[in-house]
Amino acid sequence: MTPTELAEAPAGPVEVEGDDAPVAATTLPAIVATSVPPTHLRTLSGMSPSDYMNLGGALISTLSITLLLFGILAPLSGVVGFVVVAWVMFLVVYGLLVSLDESRPVMVDKVMSAVLLSAAMLAGIALLSVIVYTIAKGWSALFKSNLYTQDMSSTGPADPITQGGIGHAIVGTLIIIGIAIAITVPLGLATAVFLNEINNRFSRFVRTVVDAMTALPSILAGLFIFATWILILGFERSGLAAAISVSIMMLPIIIRSADVVLRLVPGNLKEASYALGAPQHRTVRNVTLPTARSGLATAVILGVARGIGETAPVLLTAGYTGTLNVDPMHNSVVSLPLATYYFVRSPQQVMIQRGFATAAVLMVLVLVLFAIARLLGGRQAGQVGRRQARRIAARSASDAARFHRLSGEGQVSFDPAAPPPPPPVVVLPEVAS
Amino acid sequence: MTVTELSGSGTPPTSASTFVRSGPPPVARLPEPRKLTAKRMRGDRIFHGGSYLSGVIVLAIMVAVGLFLSVQAWAALSSAGPSFFTTAEWETDRGHFGIASIMLGTALVALVAVGVAMPVAMGTSLFITNIAPQRVRTYLVAMVDLMAAVPSIVYGLWGAYFFQGMAIDVARWINTWLGWMPWFSVAGADPNSPTSSLTVYSASIFVAGIVVALMVMPIQTSVMREVFSQVPIGEREGAYALGGTRWGVIRIVSLPFARGGIIGGTMLGMGRALGETIAVALILSSRFDVNFHILESGGNTVSKLIADRYSEASGFGLSALMAAGLALFAITLVVNFTASWFVARSRSGAESEG
Questions:
Q1: Are B266 and B114 in contact (CB under 8 A)?
Q2: The pTM is what?
């Protein structure tokens, strides 16, 4: 109900002006004790012992049936087959067991909850399997120092894993991503601010185009730079060319996620700033950006993680080299994913192993970046960390002291009649737990 | 309490005349309203200029990419004519090339990927929003984000060296039991002989599609999760208050509310799947015929073609690759815009009373 509706409702039979208007009394029915109050509270959440029994029974019987099916009745094969059959059997048996002492809707609810849980578990197992498999395959090479200190310039395809390394690919990745960060982070954040602060037809058009460019397949970003920068303008394949193509791919990603984060900044914070007379650029600098800081950091770091792992544009623009090259302007460089791609396409087992070691290094790098993003982010806009809270408190205390001092000296007076107020109490902002 | 509420609560409208008006009678003609035009300070002018500049730069880059692709592709498109869409081969030197087979391969990989990823994404997002306890929820969200951050080359390695061995069993099973459907049949496979070679099933669109599914699942999950979490809490709790079970509430309230978001998230994932390069290039073996047998070894996609051919391409060959890339870009654009339209439309209902 809207306020207007509320207001117009009592228009008819309202007779409340007169003092002697009859007062309609509300009568309550007398409370009659009809039943004995329950002696214990029913548990509404969690699992009861009978739920555990159902689950355990279903698991045991599923295992038995599946083993029977696989071992004796039909020689099906494969791990996937076993898991799928076991899963279907589990759902059937579990449903049966629950339906013994529950109604049909409860049975459907429990079975469907199990289905949804298994979808989440499937995703988790797939991710775990990808990470563990990659790192495990590269494990033996990960702790050999030559992997990080040497390059492939004097290593033949048949040389053992104790020779050669991917130092050049690590340096190449750092060069490419460093230049890409230098391009995309200022430009991307400025554009996200532009999309949020200026709302007219042009900014909406820019937002639509940026949205469209997130659909650009990453290999086309590489093809664009390959055709313009390298073929038409005649520059050579280099770290710079690779960095520009990675930037074209990262830019829409960073703009879009930063735009979303900035849109979450509470409007009343900004309006409070305007109400205090702050111009727009100071509001952006002192209110909007600090409030969204952790979210922006997360957006940037996840964009960087995507950029580091990108192979397709680098494949077209960086060339391939086995030697260390620290000059981003000249000669080919190679990045970690690109080196992996070249290593595993070799028929030599040693090279494939090297490829897995490279992929493992890349994976560890992405995991570290992701962990940093998690530590920084995950906080809602406006919540502050402990150290941030202390800094804000200190600043506001010094402001308060300054006001107090100035009003005592008679330089600043908010109310000419009033005596100088006592030093105000500094209220600490709420700290995120 | 709002103004309307205050004015109407006590006195009925007829008693308005009982108010005693004090002061001079109201002026008939209202004074001209003050013009409120703010003159921007210098700092703000600089700020506006700077942010416009960044918007213009980004716009210029993006438009340049699109325009350049179109211009470069024109030479190949105009020489091939309409046969560009019907030819399966890719022999640019003989002027005989087209996207019939690679586009079909691209679409099939994306379809397999979405077919596998969509149920998993939906289950995961429903589990996160409706069932998981708060603490588990944060971990699951982090897990999905991490899946999106894993580089595609890592997925490709995993698919080519680890998952393929498992997927071949599944492929053989599907071929044995459902091989009578034309798209599941495999040339050269003999399901009745257990000793027959399994290599006919390797490097297939099916395997590549499942690996791409892992890459598109995170984006689908996060879009669906966002839409599911916007289901009005009042309607959900109303359904619970009527005695609904968790699944009942999901089926009656959440799914109908989030239908647009589910479709949109699925299509957004499809846009990603269409453009995937490296994982597909590592798994799929190249072939250039119109092949819709998804379990059969070999296939091709647009991005794989570009990755394979760009280095040996001359001017005209490059133009042909650009044309293929442009066709892919056009399709992903259409898919993405349709997806965002669906997602945006599904949110309009989020304003209902909570």
A1: yes
A2: 0.79
